[in-house]
Amino acid sequence: MPPSRMVEVVENGRRDAMGLRKVDSRASITEADDLDLARLPDRPRIKIERKRSFDERSLSEHLAGGSLRQVDSVESIFSLGGLRSVLDSPSSLGHHSFEPHPMFAEAWDALRKSIVLFRSQPVGTIAALDHTSEEVLNYDQVFVRDFVPSAMAFLMNGENDIVKNFLLKTLHLQGWEKRIDRFKLGEGVMPASFKVRHDPIRKNDNLTADFGESAIGRVAPVDSGFWWIILLRAYTKATGDMTLAESPECQRGMRLILALCLSEGFETFPTLLCADGCSMIDRRMVGQTFDSASLYCRALLTKPISQGVYGYPIEIQALFFMSLRCALSMLKQDSEGKEFIERIVKRLHALSYHMRNYFWLDFQQLNVIYRYKTEEYSHTAVNKFNVIPDSIPDWIFDFMPNRGGYFIGNVSPARMDFRWFALGNCIAILSSLATPEQSAAIMDLLEERWEELVGEMPLKIAYPALEGHEWRIVTGCDPKNTRWSYHNGGSWPVLLWLFTAACIKTGRPQIAQRAIDLAESRLSKDGWPEYYDGKTGRYVGKQARKFQTWSIAGYLVAKMMLEDPSHLGMISLEEDRAMKPPVKRSASWTI
Ligand code: GLC
């Protein structure tokens, strides 16, 4: 880090013409982050106060049995060449003057209108403020996952209280006894959503929460607890206020979440086995996909299809990994925390190995699977999960570019779901579950398959869509999830913020800019829909809400992050040396 590096501290709390506060990303980036972000061209001088009060504690540090003092994390992902394309690219941020688009002010306005008060305190944002829709369903609630981009926008704007209140309110809800019929749920389960009800007679506000008992499908939201931990770290990074994370309540809340997902059972894999529909894709969708012409599928179709599809969805595995790393940086090494720290360290090791080996797919690996032998026994097996090559869907052979790769949707015994899922892959980049080479390969894929994965409206939630028999089997004939709609190949503007963060981390902000330009051409005109339909995302979703808060917040966060990439530290973790891959498998692995 050159000592002469320009550091401009901006007064915290100053507001600009739009009423937005200029925020210094206090303690929001590690020193290694500084170094590389400084190299982004044509960006305003970065506002960094070089306080290092909350850097990540690296896994290597824990492994070495070191004290919990903050140490420099390992080398930055950027320094491994991630910035290549920014520096090489003629179309990098040069054209981008950071002039606020008129949509930016409109989005802030809409975001503020979605704020929910509880006893006069802001505690979250409702899912959608759609006055045109008669069917409110549960869109008038504060969803934990939906609030994350809102929270990021508020934190980037120095409005920290709403985030703190939300974290405390949901922590309080975690403490409730949760039942579905006669079954008591685990203590650590966080709600999917909560609702503030105003009692006009008593002039009081009351809370109700949904832990899955009201949700369609009655599935507990596995992702809520993970997002809660990730948000707690983002809050701490953005504010420099460690007292919240260090409070006994938050420490306990974290431990309860971790106890749920680190418990021992009959597992032979370090991944987390989940019911379908336990994340953003909250309906049956995350199962396995087969080419309908394949022999295996034909065999399957002769059998009655009654049970739901369970598995190891990438969306959850990536969030699991990220939340473990976030928790590791915040847990106290006291008598109770210590045991969890040890379990996290071991799990992270095993999880990164498993994911990087068995979920990773690129051209070379596809060729290996294509030539798999089956029925192999013992530890010498190459085809460890006995995947039958006939079950590889046809589309993947054309889709897979020579350059690029990604983490596939699901891997379990004899089952591979080859579909692309955007959230899991972006989180894999941000959490450094993906190695720097894999991260670059994911971005290569996005560039090579832009039409399919971004199209006319960023970003496809999953690709490709399930049709015909597959749609019947996997979605259970779900009319909301018809091909190229909603979770089944629909395009979700909210994903823009995660995509932008991944682009910045891999040194390709110009790609994020391209996606933002697409969003700016339609989002406001179309009334900020929840999702778009069609192969290229051209049509406003069949049942999409308008003024969907996370579409609005996702856009704001993407804009603010691109304007000031130092915000990236809130949602990004560097690679940890202790998790370096022990094996080299194909081109996109090569260091
Ligand atoms: C839908 C989405 C879910 C989201 C909720 C509220 O159910 O599938 O991810 O949290 O709407 O917006």
From TrEMBL:
<dbReference type="InterPro" id="IPR024746">
    <property type="entry name" value="Glyco_hydro_100"/>
</dbReference>
<dbReference type="Pfam" id="PF12899">
    <property type="entry name" value="Glyco_hydro_100"/>
</dbReference>
<comment type="function">
    <text>Invertase that cleaves sucrose into glucose and fructose.</text>
</comment>
<dbReference type="GO" id="GO:0005987">
    <property type="term" value="P:sucrose catabolic process"/>
</dbReference>
<protein>
    <recommendedName>
        <fullName>Alkaline/neutral invertase</fullName>
        <ecNumber>3.2.1.26</ecNumber>
    </recommendedName>
</protein>
<dbReference type="GO" id="GO:0033926">
    <property type="term" value="F:endo-alpha-N-acetylgalactosaminidase activity"/>
</dbReference>
<comment type="similarity">
    <text>Belongs to the glycosyl hydrolase 100 family.</text>
</comment>
<dbReference type="InterPro" id="IPR008928">
    <property type="entry name" value="6-hairpin_glycosidase_sf"/>
</dbReference>
<dbReference type="GO" id="GO:0004575">
    <property type="term" value="F:sucrose alpha-glucosidase activity"/>
</dbReference>
<keyword id="KW-0326">Glycosidase</keyword>
<keyword id="KW-0378">Hydrolase</keyword>
<keyword id="KW-0119">Carbohydrate metabolism</keyword>
<dbReference type="InterPro" id="IPR012341">
    <property type="entry name" value="6hp_glycosidase-like_sf"/>
</dbReference>
